[in-house]
Amino acid sequence: MMTGSHCYCFFGIISIFFSLIIHTLSSTTPHSCLHHQREALLEFRDEFPIDEFDPNPWNKSSTDCCLWKGITCDDRSGQVISLNLVGTFLNGSFKTNSSLFRLQYLRHLNLSYCDIQGEIPSSLGNFSRLTLIDLSHNNLVGEIPVSIGNLKRLRLSLGKLNQLRYLSLAANELTGEIPSSLGNLSSLLELRAPSLRVHGGGSQVPDSIGKLNDLRVISLGQNTLNGAIPISFANLTKLYHISLRSNNFTSTLPSDMSVYHKLEHFDVAANSFLGSFPKSLFTIPSLQVVYLDDNQFIGPIEFVNTSSSSSPKLEILSLASNIFIGVVPESISKFLNLGEINLFGNNFSGHIPRSISKLVNLQTLNLASNNLEGQVPACLWRLTTVTLSNNFFSSFENPSQETLIQALDLNSNSFQGPFPHWICNTKGLSFLDLSNNLFNGSIPLCLEDSIASFSDLILRNNSFSGTLPDIFANAIELRSLDVSRNQLEGNLPKSLINCEALQLVNMESNRIKDVFPSWLGSLPSLHVLILRSNEFHGTLHRHDHVFVGFQSLRIIDISHNDFTGTLPPYCFSSWRGMTILREEDDPYMADIINESVFYRNSMVMVSKGVELSFERIQQDFRAIDISGNKIYGKIPESLSFLKELHLLNLSGNAFTSHIPRSLANLTKLETLDLSRNKLSGQIPQDLGELSSLSYMNFSSNLLKGPVPRGTQFQRQNCSSFSDNDRLFGLEEICGKIQVSPPTSQQPEKLSEPEEELFSWVAAAIAYGPGVFCGLVIGHIFTSYYHKIWSKKNTISCR
C-alpha cells in the first residue's frame, strides 16, 4: 500500500522525468545551418588555394554546414559559433573583405598551424562575440597597432572584442609594438604573441597595457621585445605566472599594469630583455612562476629585504642564460615554497648559500655553467635533481640523512679523491655524471646495490684504476655506460650481458686486456660500441662466427688494439642497424631523465684523418673503425650491404688483395681510409661516382693503375695516394710529379733511359779529372826519370 508521502514522491519523480524528457527533446533538436552562413563558409574556403593533399573538407552537396568538420553551430539559432581549422593547409592570405567576417555570431576562431600569410585584417575587430582567437603558428606579418583606437599601421581594431578570453598570435612574423589598446580587453584570459619582432631600439610595451589589473599570467616569450621590467608590475596583485624569456627589451615596459582585471595568460616569451634585476616583481604576493631566462639582464640579483613584501607562493624561479654576477644571495631562502631554481649559464661566483637548506620544498637546482666553487652542502642530496656541472667545486659533504636524488650531474669540476661511497646508498638514482674531474681509485663494488635504477653512468675522463667491477647483473635500465679515458684494466664485466636496454658502451683509452666481447652482440638495443685504444687482443671471431648479432649497431670503434686474424666475407651481413634508418623523435642520441635533465651522448672518434670530439651523436650516423690492429686477409664483401655507412676506417692493418668494387654501393659513404695496408690492384673506378665521399686515403699500399677521375678524387690531398709506386694519373691532384731521391727504406728504381743517361754523365764527369790526373802523373814521372838519366850520363863522362 502506498502512503501519501510515497505518492507525492512518486509523482514528483514522474514530473521530473517528463520535464527532463521535454527539455532534452527541445534542446537536442538542433537547428539546421543557415543558408547564408553556409555560403559564407564555402566562399571563405575558396579564398585559399586547394591543396591536392588536403582537399576541401566541406562537402558542398551537404546542406547542413553544422555537420562539417571544424564547424559548431548554436543549437537553437543555427548560427555558426565556432570555426576550428587547426592544421588545415590554407597557404594564403586573408582578404580584407573576406566572407569570414559575415559570420557575426562567431565565438571561437582557431586557425592555428594553417600556413596563413599576410597581415591580420582589421575587420577581425568586428567579431564582437569572439571569446577565442588563435592564429598562432602561421606566417602572419605586419604590426599590431600601438593602441586599439589607433589603426594607422595594421588597421586592427580589437577594442570591440569585450568578451575575448583567449588571444594567441604565437609563432608568427608580426612586428611592431604590443598595442596599448589591448588594455580595453578587461576580460582577456590569454594573450600570447611570441615571435613578434619589435622595430627600433626604443620601442616599448605601451603603458596602457597595465590597465588589465586582474592579470594572472604574463608570457611574452620568444620575441625581440626590449626594455626593462617596470616597477609598476608590482601592482599586479593577482599575477601568478610571468614569462619574459628570450627577448630583447632595452627600455621600460608600461608603468601601469595595475588595471588588467582578468587576464590569465600574457605571453612575451622569447625576446631579450636588457637591464638590472627586477626585484620589484618579487613583492607580488600571488607570484608563483617566474621565467626570465635567456635575456641580457646584468648585475647581481637581490630581493626586497622585507619578508612581508615577498612572494610567499613562489615555486619556480628561472634566471638562466643571462649575465648575472656576484654571489647567489642568502635571501633566496625566504621563498619557502620554491620547488625549482634555475641559475644556469650566468657568472655567479662564490659558494652555494647555506640558507638554501631552509627550502624544504626544493626539488630541482641547476647552477651549471657558472664560476661557483668550494664545497657542495649535504642538504642538496635530499633534492631529486642537482646539476652543478662546469663550475669549480672541489669537494662535497656526505649526506646526513637519506638521499632522494634521482639525477646528479657533477661533470667538469675539480672534484678529487675516491669515488663517493655514499652514492652506493641511493635508492632511486637514475642519472650519474662524474666525468671530467680528478676522481681516482677504484670503482666500488657497493655500486651494485644502487645500479639497478641507473639509466646513465658517466665516469669519463677521470683517473679511476683497477678493474671495472662485475656489478651489472641487475642494471636492466642502464642505457649509457661511459668509463672512457681512465686507467681501468682487466676484463670486460660479463654481467653487461644482462643490460638489455644498453645503447652505448664506451671503454675508450683504458688498459682493458680481453678478447673481443662478441657476446655483446645479443643486446637488442646496442647502438654504439667503443673499445678504442685498449689492449684487446685475439681474433674477432671464434668457431667461424664473427660479429654475430649486433643487429642494432650503428657505430663501432675497436681501433688501436691488438686484434688479429681475418674477417670472413659474410661477417657484416647481420648488421641491420647500418642498412636501414628508423624515424627518431630526436636527431641526436639522448636521454630524457626528467623534466629538468636532458642528456646527450658524446664520444671521440677519428673522422677524415682528425680526432674529433662529437658532443652530440647523430641518430643517422653510421661508422666502422677497425684501424690500428693486425687484421689481414681480404676486405669482406659484406661491407657493401651497409647502405647507411658514413665512415669506414680499415687503415693500419695488413689487408691484402684488391679493394672490393662493391664498396661503390655505399652511396652515403663520406670517409674511406684504407691506408697502411698491403692492398694491391687498382682503385675501383666506380668509387669516383660516390658524390658523398669527401675524404679518402689509399696511401702506403701496393696499388697500381690509374686513379679514378671522379670529382671527389680530384679534390683529395696528394698524400692520400702516396707510397703506391705504380699508381699513375695523379697530375691533376699532385701537379707535376718530381723525382725524389731514394730513401733507405724504399730505394727508388730508375728507368732504362734515365739509367743510360746517368752512365754517360758519370763517364763524362770521370773522364776529365782522369785525363788531367794522368797528365800530371806522367809529367812528374817523366821529369823524375829525366833527372836520373842526366845524372847517370854525367858520372859516366867523368
Keywords:
798 residues, alpha/beta, Leucine-rich repeat, LRR (right-handed beta-alpha superhelix), six-stranded parallel β-sheet, globular, disordered N terminus, disordered C terminus
Structure description:
This protein is α/β, with parallel strands linked by helices. It has a domain of 240 residues: Ribonuclease Inhibitor (Leucine-rich repeat, LRR (right-handed beta-alpha superhelix)). It has five helices and 53 strands. The strands form nine sheets. It has a 25-stranded mixed β-sheet, with no helix packed on it. A six-stranded parallel β-sheet has the order 14-16-18-20-22-24, with no helix packed on it. The chain has a five-stranded parallel β-sheet with strand order 26-28-30-32-34, with no helix packed on it. Helix 3 links the parallel strand 52 and strand 53. The N terminus and C terminus are likely disordered.
Q: So how many helices?
A: 5
Query: What is the count of β-strands?
Result: 53
Helix content: 10-25%
- CATH class of the domain at 489-728 reads Alpha Beta
Distance between the termini: 196 Å
Shape: globular
Low-confidence stretches: 1-29, 145-164, 180-215, 249-273, 738-767, 771-798
Give me the Rg, rounded: 40 Å
- State the CATH topology of the domain at 489-728: Leucine-rich repeat, LRR (right-handed beta-alpha superhelix)
Q: Strand percentage, roughly?
A: 15-25%
CATH architecture of the domain at 489-728: Alpha-Beta Horseshoe
Mean pLDDT: 77
Major sheet characteristics: 25 strands, mixed
Assign the CATH superfamily of the domain at 489-728.
Ribonuclease Inhibitor
Query: Helices and strands: which structural class?
Result: alpha/beta
